[in-house]
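Researcher: I'm comparing several assemblies side by side, and this is the next one on my list. It has 767 residues spread over two chains. Same procedure as the others: predict the full complex and return the structure.
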Amino acid sequence: MLHLKNAKVYTMSDAHVIDHCDILIENGKIKEVGRSLHSKDAEIIDVSGKIIIPGIVDAHSHVGTFNVTTNDQNANDLTGPNSSQLDIYYGIDPDSKSFKDCCRDGITTSIIAPGSGNAICGLVLAMKSAGKTYDQRIVKRPCALKAAMGVNPKGVYGPRDQLPVSRLGISQLFIDYFENVKEYMKKKEEAKGDPEKMPPYNEGYEHGQWVLERKIPLKVHAYQHDMMSLLRWKEEYGFDLTLDHAFGASDFYDEIAASGADVIWGPLSGPLFGGEGCKVDPECVIELDKRGVTCAIMTDGPVLHPYLIITQAGEVVRHGGDVESVLKMITLNPAKIARADDRIGSIEAGKDADLVVFDKTPALDTDAKVEMTMIDGEIVYQSK
Amino acid sequence: MFCIKNATIHDGKEHVFKKDILIDGHTIVSVSEHIDTESEYFDAQGMHVFPGFIDPMSNWGILGPGREIRGNAEDNDEHTHVCTPEMNIIYAFNGRGIRIQQLGAFGITAVGVAPSNNNLFGGMMGVFDVDGINPFKMCIKEKAGLKACVTSDVTKFWGAKNMMPSTHMGIFQMFSEQLRNAKEYDSSKGRDPKKEAIREMLDKKMPLFVVAKKPMEVHSLLHILKDYDVDLVLASGFGLQDCEEEILEYRPAIISSVRVDGFNTDAADGDNEFLYQLYKKGIQVSLASNVDGRMCSREEMLWNGIDMYKACHDSEAVITMMTFNNAKALGVDDVTGSIEEGKRADLVIYSDHPLKTYKAEVLLTLSNGKAVYRKGDEMKCFI
């Protein structure tokens, strides 16, 4: 048993922020959270004066699928614009150095998606930055089907003069896909288990079925008005939806809040220029959060280094965000988006012991430093 | 006349004091206690005033693909010859291209603009205002430096055309040959604008800015430059801990850039603690939003400052690296880069210290005395 003593804990639960708080950890899980806890034979770690938050969850990342040294990539299979049959599980190198960087910077879980080169990209999973085996590190698989509107699929297939060259083509791809999935589901239902009457097995449609049955959300690279197209299809096909990147969401507060879609904003790293990313509005998550939208912030790793998830959270604070709410956007909210908030995202009894210990308050104090990162009760990073 | 009262002033030269600032038109005319004036004033009680940040080696204001519809290159990238030292960036700088970025929203009031990293010698840099339309009116200094690049950006670009330099051998052979030829250049025997531009640098009419990202590039560069007396500004700051001895001997100025881009593997070797030690040893260290020719965001200059602050906890040194040292590198320290009487009124008022807390927001930014940003003005959208 581990006994962390006397820290200021941002629990992200109904208990909010607890000063002089202890945390008891046993078998990789949080056993108890509160003031002046008693333990027997526990290893005591004095964290007086420290700030503890739940392990950071990066809501949109590609770590482990790009090797930035060799330029190898396993994120985009650019052989056709619909690769819905693919699963990012087979594209991740669990030994990638990026995961060590995540541990160093406090990211304990990443939602890892295929890249946005195709319109329908493939399955997404959520996994921890460290652990015993690859499979044991996986928190949720699949946790979404990734898709992409806009400039990425256009940029891949446009120069080949293949569909989609434009947003017209991308939209038609989405519509055709979901119509085909519906048809496939109907045929399966009509077959009533008779193998003779079953439609030929189609893995891509199987994955689409999970989306239409709302077992997993559709996770879509979307900027500006593309978000509105998606809200229409969300309504029409009844799927759950996360709007990823979401630059320009501040133009559509009413529509997004009414839709029930989640918003994952970022990464903040470009100038103001034409094209889909032309509206740069990190503060949109403050207003959307107030209106009850589940908002998160992403690194798009390895596009941005993992520590920039906190820097971006800091920029939201600079725009007027309240620190606790903003920290929720990199902990509990993305855990909910991964549908893994039963295990991660907050510091509560029964949850995985994924914690980050800082010397100061992250997203407020610019020089807040990660002193320790813990995953499943194991210390995976400790500062010198 | 405009007065900033009761401000905590960080002057850009590591001094912090509480005084008033009186501005007449474009110029700071007085920095003193209790300025009595009838003029318009801004009460900066509890706030922090800094010299405007200077982003020294950017591509702000440059148009080209991704930014306009036609053309084959960014306008700072004349990649038809590997050596284009005679090119002058002022002809590629577009006022509207930079004012739309509203750099003042993050406290930047002047920028150094450089040719791209594809050529060995890219051309001559300039220093510009962040707000305006006419580049010639916005120009603070023309020919502020000669830009060279000795990284794999050059070998990849020219190597792909099967042209030299496709290796670092080629880079440094060509580099030393260009210097040698320029040294021997005699204009009376016929005009050669390439040699002339490099000769101007050798005659110390402008400094030499060299992008070098790897220690091997810095070693080679300093090895060749041993034979020349030039004002060198080394842009990158990556992996320099392996070149400490040469740096302390040659004493170049250093510009370091932010490590935002996860695909920039060279930047992973950046060591801010080491750069701070160099700073303490009298090396002129400064910070940039980027030196990669990458399109970056206006936040990155400050983020780089925050990263440096995390490493050294010396906020005033970091402010110097973002202001006065950049002005010195670009040769405009006589007109901007610090809050002093007689200098341009380039300054930013923050609600708190932006290197220390994310709560700090810009309330007012003045560039050449003109309010280029007030809290609430933030431009969000390009179209």
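Model: For your comparison table: Residues 52-336 of chain B form a domain with the TIM Barrel fold (CATH 3.20.20.140).
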